[in-house]
Amino acid sequence: MLACGLVLPFAALSSAQPVTAPNLTVGQNLEIITNIPLKGPAPSGGMVLKLASADPARMLLSNREDLPGSGEITLKVQEGRTGSPEFVIQALAGSGTVAFTGTAAGFEDIRGTVNLAPSGIVLSGPARFAKTLATTSGGWPVKLTLYSALLDSAGKFVTVQQVRGGFAAKVHLASSNTSVAAVETPALTIGGGEVSVVTQLKPARAGSTVVSVDVPPGFTAPTQFTSVTANILLPGIGLTEDMTIGHDLEVGAHLTLGEPAPADGLNVTIVSADPAKLLLSVGRLDPAAKSITLPIKGGTSNIGYFLHGIGDSGSVSHTAAAPGYQSRSGVVALGPSGVILAGPTGAPDEVEILRPKVPLGVNGFFIPLPGAHPVHFVAYMVQLDPLTHRGADITVQMLRAGLTLKVTLTNSDPSVGTAPSTITVEGGSDQGGADFTPLKVGSTVISVLTPTGYTTPSNATTLKAVVTE
Fold first, then answer.
1. Distance between CA atoms of 11 and 18, rounded to whole angstroms?
2. What is the CATH superfamily name and number for domain 237-335?
3. Do 119-233 and 237-335 have matching folds?
4. Closest CA to 59 of 44, 69, 50
5. Which sequence spans correspond to the domains of the chain?
6. Greatest CA span in the chain, whole angstroms?
7. Beta 119-124 vs 142-151: how paired, if at all?
8. Taking the model in full, what pTM does it have?
């Protein structure tokens, strides 16, 4: 319910104060709901207030917002109440003024004036009264709302007001290009006591259309908000980007459609801008190529793929394209890579990357000799920070598919414990493991030799094994 506070001072007959009322403005074939505040509580037993229009051909009164008005209405004010019940003022004309009066036994007459103004039907999209809206060709229908509105003398929008009871605004919406988007229900009615009616715009294909509303009988053409331009766009594609891939390493990536694939599925093609720097694969162990095609099932919108770093510096883009979708490019950075060692506690903490000024901790483990079992340690493939050449748990990445890397190890004192001389890392895996077998109390240092074509890390290239009693 829309309310407008009409203040009509209600004076006792003995009062010498004049009775005045502020002006109200109502649009043609519209209505407002109001009441009359009293100067004091209604007397014992209540009171009957009669209201009358001075010109029923131009302004009516009603007890209910959804009913036709009449020239006179009666309101019952309950005992002790300081205001009248709500009533409705309905305008039948769009210009001039109409007076009304109120009478009650034992009280002086009330006089008020209502300004009559033009009215119109205005149109709004999801963002109220925005001039344009945007959606995608396969997106959900877009809500359109028609409002009955009070206009000023220049036809500009002032505020929404209800259609008067007993009257109906029959309006029609039209799309200038129905092949782009069509109005679901073009013929609409705003009934008496209502202020709006809703329909939907159904997108069909990329393009632009203008949706406009006509001027129904009994209303004026507004100078604002009578049309909305709908821009129907192709849905987009999201790609993995803003990450760094190490030389000869690979990482899992993700593609997302802005709208689910059609029922019969969709093939998305991804192409590397420079295969000397970046290759792609559908699966983790699949051969890498400049271009791949991802089959996305109908009704789904996500799929994974893999990025293979070939270069060790700079950046490179890859672009995804599919019929009915906007193409999208994603840029990834390339960096050096290397091999680090880690004991049972795992790879170095990310703090060694994120806070390079923090001193590096000792990388190693302790093992008591009595009842000792071999201790497993790991060689990890890592993308190295381009400046510090450090690697950590957050930079562990897979050796790219199709490669096999044999990592050479050295042991400073084999009499303390034994370890293999090499660890093998297979393509599609981020690590290779080995066991250290303790032999006697003491300490030894296991070191990794940087393979040809890789960069020597500045941390975690050694692992100190301490055998205790």
1. 8
2. Immunoglobulins (2.60.40.10)
3. yes
4. 69
5. 24-117, 119-233, 237-335, 337-468
6. 119
7. antiparallel
8. 0.73
Q: How far apart are CA 204 and CA 201, in angstroms?
A: 10
Pairing of strands 207-213, 227-233: antiparallel
Residue recorded with tokens 């690979």: 250
- Site of tokens 């715009």: 201
CA 118 to chain CA centroid, Å, is 39
Domain 337-468 belongs to what architecture?
A: Sandwich (2.60)
Hey, what are 171's tokens? 């309006």
Token pair of 253 as six digits = 């990536």
Other Cβ atoms within 10 Å of 46 Cβ, number: 13
Measured distance between the N- and C-terminal CA atoms of the chain, rounded to whole angstroms? 86
Report whether 100 contacts 53 (CB < 8 A).
yes
Name the architecture of domain 119-233: Sandwich (2.60)
Return the number of other C-beta atoms located less than 10 Å from residue 181's C-beta: 26
Q: What sign for the dihedral angle of Cα 83, 88, 92, 95?
A: positive
Give the tokens for residue 314: 């700079």
425 neighbors 386 (Cβ within 8 angstroms): no
DSSP structural state of residue 235? -
The one-digit pLDDT tens for each residue of the chain (469 residues) are 444 444 343 333 333 333 345 579 999 999 999 888 777 788 889 889 999 999 999 999 999 999 999 999 999 989 988 778 999 999 999 999 999 988 888 777 778 899 999 999 999 999 989 899 999 998 889 999 999 999 999 999 999 999 999 999 999 999 999 999 999 999 999 999 999 999 999 999 999 999 999 999 999 999 999 999 999 999 999 999 999 999 999 999 999 999 999 999 999 999 999 999 999 999 999 999 999 999 999 999 999 999 999 999 999 999 999 999 999 999 999 999 999 999 998 899 888 888 877 777 779 999 999 878 999 999 999 999 999 999 999 999 999 999 999 999 999 999 999 999 999 999 999 999 999 999 999 999 999 999 999 999 999 999 999 999 8
Q: Locate tokens 């032999």: which residue?
A: 439
3-class secondary-structure state, position 327? coil
Tell me which CATH homologous superfamily contains domain 24-117: Immunoglobulins (2.60.40.10)
